[in-house]
Each structure stands twice: as structure tokens, then as C-alpha cells.
Amino acid sequence: MAMAGRAATSVAVSGGLNVAQEVNPESIEGAAKRTAGEIAKLLAEAFKKQGRI
User: Fold this and answer.
1) What does the alpha-carbon distance between residue 35 and residue 53 come to, in Å, rounded to a whole number?
2) How far is CA 35 from CA 12, 31, 51, 52, 53, in A?
């Protein structure tokens, strides 16, 4: 669980930096979708390792 927390925090921070670099609403939406996708990948990996999925 701690691994997933650290990974999610890392993705959230890097995603936040990407959003800060964007200048228009379409870019912000795209950055949010990319960040959500990365978080989903990390959670899926963590849940697989735990045998949940």
C-alpha cells in the first residue's frame, strides 16, 4: 500500500508540473487525462501484486 501511495504522489506531482506548463484549457484537460491514466496504471500494477486483480 505504501508503494502505491508513493507512486501516486509522484505521478500527481509530475502531473501537476505538466499542468503548470500548459497555457490553455484544452492542454489542461489533456494533462489531467494523462495524469489520471498514469495513476490508473500504477494502481493496477499495485493491485495485481497484491492479488486483488
Assistant:
1) 22
2) 7, 6, 24, 23, 22
- Alpha-carbon distance 22 to 45, whole Å? 29
Q: What is the pLDDT of residues 1-53, one digit of tens each?
A: 566 667 656 655 565 556 556 566 678 889 999 999 999 999 999 999 999 98
Domain boundaries, position 44: 2-50
Q: What is the largest CA-CA distance in the chain?
A: 41
Distance between CA atoms of residues 14 and 21, nearest Å = 11
Q: In angstroms, rounded to a whole number, what is the distance separating the alpha carbons of residues 28 and 23?
A: 7
The structural domain count of the chain equals 1
